[in-house]
């Protein structure tokens, strides 16, 4: 149920974007939901509707109408992380197989986002909360944290059954820059996939339109789908298996799994698409390269796959 909440911007929050302010105050709510709140004019600043990019001033009065019961995404959980790299701007981790990246309607805990939230805020002292009473008797929340709560900014995703490298931003600026780089295809990603059968070609390209079959609740090649492209290179052949390095040129849902099935070599463990039964899906994000938002230098990370 929606409730009306009133907030005052603290001096330390001056020049903060309205979106970042709301993300900090309602850290359990998703960015998409909060953006929708602002877009549908359920958030006023000093009695006016502003956009998410509005720069706050000290003592700005914010009135917002939202459903606080939707909070779940930022619950911190002390879950071990395989950290590959970390600085003040971002963190690169090696996600294990079987872990969701972020909470879903069914699974609200035990995700990578829960683990990152705990890790990035483990040294932050508790928030100091004060309440100021307005002349009309309405209580106004004026909480000011000793240090800004770090909200992990996920720029890309990995499926639950896929392991490997993933980068998350520690602040809004880093998130915006990396998101733009992903959009402009300035980020290089490579996956390792162990597939059934011997792939004859040393390298090649797989294309096709991918769409969702609603009634069957699955993704696959579909005439009215979106065009997709994956480049592949055979790295090793042994027995009746081939280790492929895959480069997704586009980023469609289940693209790599569908493309491997398309060429008659499903990924080992992908039984839904004809792959050999195995303890896991043999798909791993093993290489990630991008331009660092702060230093502007290209950095690259690699992670070995358990099935290599």
Helix and strand layout, with pairings?
Blueprint: E1 3-8, H1 18-25, H2 31-39, E2 43-45, E3 48-49, E4 61-66, E5 83-86, E6 90-95, H3 112-120, E7 131-133, E8 139-141, E9 153-154, E10 163-169, H4 172-183, E11 188-196, E12 203-213, E13 218-221, E14 226-238, E15 241-248, H5 255-262, E16 283-291, E17 298-302
Parallel strand pairs: 10-16
Antiparallel strand pairs: 1-4, 2-3, 2-4, 5-6, 6-10, 7-8, 9-10, 11-15, 11-16, 12-13, 12-14, 14-15, 16-17
Description:
With 308 residues, this protein is an alpha+beta fold. The chain has three domains: 68 residues, Structural Genomics Hypothetical 15.5 Kd Protein In mrcA-pckA Intergenic Region, Chain A (Roll), CATH 3.10.290; 69 residues, Alpha-Beta Plaits (2-Layer Sandwich), CATH 3.30.70; 116 residues, Pseudouridine synthase. It is 15% helix and 33% strand. It is built from five helices and 17 strands. The strands form three sheets. Strands 5, 6, 9, 10, 11, 12, 13, 14, 15, 16 and 17 form an eleven-stranded mixed sheet that branches. About 7% of the residues have low confidence.
